[in-house]
Design a protein that fits this description.
There is one protein chain. By secondary structure, the protein is mainly beta. Helices cover 5% and strands 34% of the residues. The chain has one helix at 126-133, and strands at residues 4-6, 14-15, 31-34, 42-49, 57-66, 71-72, 84-85, 105-114, 137-147. The termini are far apart.
Length: 153
């Protein structure tokens, strides 16, 4: 069985609803996963925009999600025990929804299954977390949504 990441808010490769973007409520969508690889000790969630003008833009990082967790509620305010937020590209430890400056962009939600917990100080960046987790990744699930702002930012 495939390791899957899904949301009830939109289908893979479809438009992300406005409420999860800068033009809406800017809240995180509900996410759910199943069929994590055997040996999973924790999960890392990354949300990125590879179409950003300055290069890949990170919108959300959560690491050390416990292996027994299989979903994150919409607009999550309290993380599961041991889970921590990393720094997005704005330098903030939070979710920041899609807000492309022009054109339609793709937003990838990637859930990485690790065979270890991450020992890292708070305020970890995307570049640093990728280096730390590389040897521990045992599976990956991906969900992609698209968004184009209606107004000029």
């Amino acid at each position: 069985m495939d390791f899957l990441l899904e949301t009830t808010s939109f289908n893979d490769k479809e438009i992300i609803p406005k409420k999860y973007t800068c033009e809406g409520e800017n809240i995180s969508p509900p996410l759910e996963w199943k069929n994590a690889p055997n040996g999973t000790q924790s999960f890392v969630l990354l949300m990125d925009d590879p179409d950003a003008p300055l290069g890949t833009w990170n919108h959300w990082i959560i690491y050390n999600i416990p292996n027994h967790i299989t979903k994150l509620e919409e607009n999550i305010k309290t993380l599961p025990n041991s889970a921590k937020l990393g720094l997005n590209s704005w330098g903030e430890e939070k979710y920041s929804g899609p807000c492309p400056p022009e054109g339609e962009h793709r937003y990838y939600f990637r859930l990485l299954a690790l065979n270890n917990l991450i020992k890292a100080k708070n305020k970890i960046s995307r570049a640093n977390i990728e280096k730390i987790i590389k040897p521990y990744i045992i599976g990956e699930a991906e969900l992609m949504g698209r968004y184009k702002c209606k107004e000029v930012n």
